[in-house]
Amino acid sequence: MNTMEPKSIEELKRNGLSRVVASVKGRDSIINGINLLQQYEIIVHPSCTCIQEELKNYTWKKDKDGNYINTPIDKFNHGLDSMRYGVTYAIQNKKAGFSIIYR
Fold it and tell me: If we measure between CA atoms, which residue out of 16, 5, 21 comes closest to residue 89?
């Protein structure tokens, strides 16, 4: 399993992000995290233009025949990765103050 480097976490904390914690990334964590997020309706505030852009452009890799495979490209994903880490952490740790609205 991989986690964020302790050095990076300390740097973020020194820059005012006191609630940063390491995310545990096990085997297939990207696909599992995407599957988790796809269970919910994601409502994006109009001012979150970067997330809107990522959602519009997020896509999957293709094989040599041009068929999509179950591997996302490594672009248009920085904000969505953060969302995936945060939601996964909150659900696994049953964090207070986090809620998911079912519709």
Answer: 21
